[in-house]
Amino acid sequence: MDKKLMRKSGTVMSLVSVALAVPVVFGSxxxxxxxxxxxxxxxxxxxxxxxxxxxNNNWMTAVPVxxxxxxxxxxxxxxxxxxxxxxxxxxxxxxxxxxVMYLDVPQGENTSFGLVFDDGTGxxxxxxxxxxxxxxxxxDVTFSKNSSxxxxxxxxxxxxxxxxxxxxxxxxxxxxxxxxxxxAWDDLSKAVPENVAAQKNVKAIKDFEIMxxxxxxxxxxxxxxxxxxxxxxxxxxxxxxxxxxxxYVNSLKADGTPDYSDIEFHDIADVMTYDYFDGNAKVQYQxxxxxxxxxxxxxxxxxxxNPNGARLPARRGxxxxxxxxxxxxxxxxxxxxxxxxxxxEIPKGKVFGFYLKDGDKAISNDQKQKxxxxxxxxxxxxxxxxxxxxxxFNHGQNFKGIRSAFAIYDNFTxxxxxxxxxxxxxxxNDVTFALSNVRGQKMVPLFTKETTESDINKPTIENPDxxxxxxxxxxxxxxxxxxxxxxxxxxxxxxxxxxxxxxxGKDNDFDFNDVVLEVTPDTKNNKAYxxxxxxxxxxxxxxxxxxxxxxxxxxxxxxxxxxxxxxTYVNTKAGQATVSPVLVADDLEWTYGSTLENxxxxxxxxxxxxxxxxxxxxxxxxxxxxxxxxxxLCVAGHWSWPLETTNVATxxxxxxxxxxxxxxxxxxxxxxxxAKGLVVKPLAPxxxxx
Length: 690
Known about the structure:
- The protein is mainly β.
- Helix content is about 10%, strand content about 35%.
């Protein structure tokens, strides 16, 4: 990124500007009738928008971000976000003190990203950055060992010294506190809102178990276990009786279904009886950026306006208020929260879930029979009644057995449970926890009856017609010669971008499928992967990349790369791509500081008439506007491009609002909302070395 373009103004700056806003005009004629753009008139062009282009619109679904880092020591900073319910790496940088990091953060609903600092000696810290609606941003991020993942539970703690009866003993030894930003409570209250049954909440994921996939080391090696941290975080309940949070672990059968024959149950901590474990509050929060930590609990009667409202007599006067009540009372004054945490180690390949035990209440016959029917041996069925993350285990008929839900934000999975065993409101937020692991990898659910993989992999769960991403490889374990697991996993963990070209100027059909590329920068290794996804061009169309020394790198003619003749359409005529993507480059030059904001302009096309290399018709560049219309769209992720001759504004009805009002965040996710039957779903690159 050109650093001269970045001028700080608080935390927001303007990166892209256009002197005059011009009407957006997308042509209605089809591409390639044999004439050059100068031979064609513009009488058939139609106004795409009634309004004008937003002067900040760079025709790229990304927010360029300059991150100014202050680190306590030498280490690695990894930037990551969630894309299609998958943690993706935006960039990685070795730092030692102050440093600058340049990122392209995908636009989307509630856009944010995470930064993880790792000093290589066991100290890791996570910071979340929430983006504003500005076209680009500069943000300051400071990591400090004074607020580490392993921060002392004793530092800055407010205790109820007079109420020693509150100091219960944890069933497992606590790990200490894990810190979260002020966003945590707000996100949770929106994801699993009070008095809204999770069963009917399309944003929440219900009925789940989780696969332990093994920790990934800094060199890409898989370890034999998954370390999971469970942190108290949020809740709102009228129960004050004993409730035990725990987890269970079991194996998988050869067919990938759960094998409960070896299931084990492990209690963690008493959730409700005590506000404190061994003198430490379950949840704490800070106000106004001050260092003091205040205690909180899950009891809805503990309101700041009513310090003596607790139903448990020993709690009265302890000043530990309910989390929801604190969130409502103080709002934006809350600047940080942290939760007492427990370290779980799950063997790689095992499946695990969670339960909330109803104290010492005996298991019902209904629950016992349900667990046996699900495959739990009678000799391993617990003796106490509990709510499980797996719906088939749960007592009663209400809410289809759904007594738990989770939502994914950045590299945390927020998991909530109901604390009533039947009835209630089913909102699954009575007691809520954060799940995280050592390297910030998302917990991947093993889908059960109520939730399927297709439900999760859609970019927008609320939109059943959103594009999915189909993997054509029938046997992903059958790796081509020369491919390594580490390389493949590295590629798949990175942020992918789609460059969609028009190649015939203003009188095109503007379906943006003449040349479709998938570009995947690997900032750690200073290179990029490039795949050719589709070719809707008829004329000879050559792909080039401008290197840092100014020379042109020829990447190939798009039809020849697909091994077809010019004039042949590839992956543009049907709703599902049928021809596998072609690896154009796996070591394209991608120097430090390069982002899609500037480097996309280094890709360009040379278009020829009559398939004659002596008749160069035009050169297509990413920064080119013709009649106000872009010639290239840069879209985050594995994008589904329009069908042949389908105007992109028809295929994506929300595009117009985004083009006119680029900075309105509600328009940022336009590319995940195609019109039904008007786009081509891509095949996933089955990555291997070129």
